[in-house]
Amino acid sequence: MRLSLTTWNINSVRLRIDLVAKFLKSARPEVLCLQETKCIDDAFPLKRFKRLGYEHVALNGQKGYHGVAIVSKIPFESKDIRTFCDKLDSRHISVSFGEKAGIAKPLVLHNFYVPAGGDIADPALNEKFDHKLRFLDEMTACEPLHPRGEDRHILVGDLNVAPHENDVWSHKQLLKVVSHTPVETEKLKAALAAGEWVDVARDRIPMSEKVYTWWSYRSPDWTVGDRGRRLDHIWVSRALKDAVSDFKILRDARNWERPSDHVPVTVTLEV
DNA sequence: ATGGTCGGCAACCGA
User: Fold this and answer.
1) How many Å apart are CA A205 and CA A234, to the nearest integer?
2) What number does CATH give the domain A2-270?
3) Which positions on chain B have an atom < 7 Å from some protein CB?
4) Fewer CB atoms near the end CB (10 Å): N or C, chain A?
């Protein structure tokens, strides 16, 4: 069975539901993972997703901030929500797929929204940066995020870190900018290395090539200088590495009307 | 080197 799965920081699912519909109608992934939905579960536009054919929904929303969701054409076996740093922030949700979806060997999917970390890259001066670093440490320490051997796990989301030199438009100029500081990039790499994970983008695209999924709103023209960063990630466990048949970053979505500052990132697997 | 723009929600906070 072919499973196509998209991650997208939507920056308010209610405001951009028409863009989500446009995307789903053309790309038709089986599963869509959203971050920054910015609404409580009761306000999530469920009916719209159901009409689009996405009948299975797992929500972890909160009022005004953060919020993650998984919407799917195929049914889940189970859902789970984890908290990090002893905060009630809605930054994680996971589901599993199995027999109900016609998938013989179980598949676990985690959807994350890692704290952005504020503006000052010093945990002593900036509590938000401290929170981000502790969040990454907890991901690394989290046993369920350590796939081994035959485990079929997928981890996606807005991880708010651009780990490699060519994940940003200027490595030199961003070394002290939150999202690309060495302390963050090392912690993200440690989280990846804590399990048998494969970073799909960098498995498929040479390290020498620039890859971005986010372009700031704070520029009158996002295309000038192409000042992007790769903040949105898809990891698959080693057992799924050879199942990956396609990987796409829909850069064009940054040009849509009233866009999110992030674009959809999609992986296709033969499961 | 600095400031720039969004969204939620009703003054700023978070990104």
Assistant:
1) 13
2) 3.60.10.10
3) 3-9, 14-15
4) N
Distances (CA, A) of A37 to A3, A43, A203: 23, 10, 29
Nearest to A248 by CA among A3, A33, A7, A1: A7
Quote the pLDDT of residue A150: 98
CA neighbor of A3 nearest in space, from A52, A73, A59: A73
Distance, CA of A144 to C1' of B3, in Å: 42
Rounded distance between C-alpha atoms, residue A110 and residue A214, angstroms: 20
Cα torsion A159, A161, A163, A164 to 10°: value is: 120
pLDDT for res A223 = 95
Residues of chain A with pLDDT under 50: none
- Calculate the angstrom distance between C1' of B7 and CA of A215: 16
Domains in chain A: boundaries: 2-270
